[in-house]
Amino acid sequence: ILVLLCMVAFSNLALAEKTALAKVTIITNDNQIPKQVQTLWRDGFEECTEKGIDTSKSLNGLKIHFSKEPKDNALYIIACGGPGYNRPFIVIAFDAAKNRMQRVAFPNVSGDEISAEFVVYNPVWNNQDMTLSTFGKDRGLGDCGQKATYKWMFPKLDSRFALVKQYNKDECDGRTDNFPQTWPLQK
Fold first, then answer.
1. Distance separating alpha carbons of residues 69 and 180, to the nearest angstrom
2. Can you tell me the distance from the alpha carbon of 72 to that of 99, in angstroms, rounded to the nearest whole number?
3. Fewer Cβ within 10 Å of end Cβ, the chain: N or C?
C-alpha cells in the first residue's frame, strides 16, 4: 500500500510539475513580441490572409513560456489576418539565446494524404494538457470545416505539435454536432 501511495503521490507531483511549466501571457500589442519574431511574423507568411491588415490593434495572441527557458524563449501564437469567423494565426517558436526562430508546422490529414499546415484558425490553447485546438470553419454557422487538436509533445522549443484528433466535414447541413473523425483513422 505504501508503494502504491508513493506512486500516486509521485504521479500527482509529476503532473503538477508538468502543468506548471508553461506560463501563458496574452499579447495585446507589438511591444510584447521580440523584434526578430515580429520580422518573421510580418514578412514571412505568404499563407496568411489579408496581408496588409494591421493585426496589432486586435491581436489577442498568446506567448507560451516554459519556466526552464530564458524569458523570451517561447511559442508565440499570433494573428495574421483580420477578425471574422475564421481568424488565421501562425505559431513561431523563438530561442532568444541562439537568436533562432522557426514557423511551427501542424500535421493535417486529408483523405489518404498527410501534409503540414503553417496557419491555424481560431486556436484555443489548453495549458493543462499542452494542447492547441483549432476550428477552420467553411462558413460562419460552423456546421462544416475542420476541427483539430494538437499536443505540444515536450516543453522544449525544438519539439513539435502532434495531431491528436481531427474531424472534417464537407457538407454544410446546418448541424454543428456531427463532424466525422478523420484522425486517428477509424477501423
1. 39
2. 10
3. C
Count CB neighbours of 183 within 10 A: 18
- Residue pair 86/137 in contact (Cβ under 8 Å)? The answer is yes
pLDDT tens for residues 94-135?
A: 888 788 888 899 999 988 888 999 999 999 999 999 999 999
Q: For residues 44 and 103, is the Cβ–Cβ distance under 8 A?
A: yes
- The three-state secondary structure class of 153 is coil
Q: Cα 62 to the chain's mean position, in Å? A: 10
Q: CA–CA separation, 184 vs 48, rounded Å?
A: 27
Cell numbers of 82, please? 483580420
Edge-to-edge order in the sheet of strand 145-152: 124-126, 131-137, 145-152, 161-169, 181-183
What pTM was computed for the model? 0.80
Placement of cell 522549443 in the chain: 157
Indicate the helix (H) or strand (E) that contains 167: strand 161-169
